[in-house]
Amino acid sequence: MNLSFDEIVKVANDRDPLKNEGFVLVTSDFQRMKIKSEKYVTYNKVHDLTNYDIVNYLLTGEIDDFVPLMADYQKKMVTDLSEKVSVWARNANMVIDELNAMNFDSKKSMAAFFNAPENQKKYKQFSRYAYHAFDQNRKIPEIQECVKQYRDVNTGRYSHGFLQTFLYDWLGMNEKV
Predict the structure, then answer these.
(1) What secondary structure does DSSP assign to the chain, as a single string?
(2) S-S: 3 plus which of 7, 14, 56, 103, CB 3.0-4.6 Å?
(3) CB 105 within 8 A of CB 99
(4) 18 burial via Cβ count (<10 Å: 0-12, 13-18, 19+)
(5) pLDDT-derived band of residue 20, with 50, 70 and 90 as boundaries?
(6) pLDDT band at 172 (very low <50, low <70, confident <90, very high)
(7) So what's the pLDDT on residue 103?
(8) pLDDT for 111-140, tens place per residue?
(9) What residues have CB less than 8 Å from 88, skipping those under 6 apart?
(10) Residue 87 near residue 63, CB atoms below 8 Å
(11) What angle do CA 177, 53, 159 make, to 5 degrees?
């Protein structure tokens, strides 16, 4: 049977990922190539998801692709992290609105505000964005714009360092990713 490469991929994708991984093709010169179905790859990714991955998929909006394939404990992780991210985003947008309304006249006055003990917990995590906005003589961007700069344009994933900061400092999670 002679099938085109695209036809082989289609057949692989149409098969049950729980029963079939895909195919191994052997060329006329005995080169081997593995064709895995997209569903199989996705299904296997689900089993290895960490908090890091879940937060990444929440932020990129891709989590819905994985939830139907998840075990119940993973679905609970998604729900818990989703709630934490939502609460954080609401709070972050409120803080950003407050900072925008303050109209700091210099970086020095802004630094004094952020370094005051009573402001450390609530505002410190946003100081980087505030300084950046001040340098560009514009308002502090909305939170989605703040985090967009940490997303890799090639992979669409957020940098590991950003997600660690997000999980540990901003969401208050203590476990390692």
Answers:
(1) ----HHHHHHHHHHS-TTT--EEEEE-TT--EEEEE-HHHHHHHHHHT--HHHHHHHHHHT-GGGTGGGS-HHHHHHHHHHHHHHHHHHHHHHHHHHHHHHH--SSHHHHHHHHHSGGGHHHHGGGHHHHHHHHHTTSPPPPHHHHHHTTB-TTT-PBPHHHHHIIIIIIS---S--
(2) 7
(3) no
(4) exposed
(5) confident
(6) low
(7) 78
(8) 898 889 998 877 777 777 677 766 666 665
(9) 170, 171
(10) no
(11) 80
Nearest 10 degrees: Cα torsion 106, 109, 114, 117: 170
Say whether pLDDT at 32 is over 90: yes
Identify which of 35, 42, 30, 45 has the alpha carbon closest to the alpha carbon of residue 4. 35
Q: Which two tokens stand for residue 55?
A: 């937060």
**Cα end-to-end span (Å), the chain:** 47
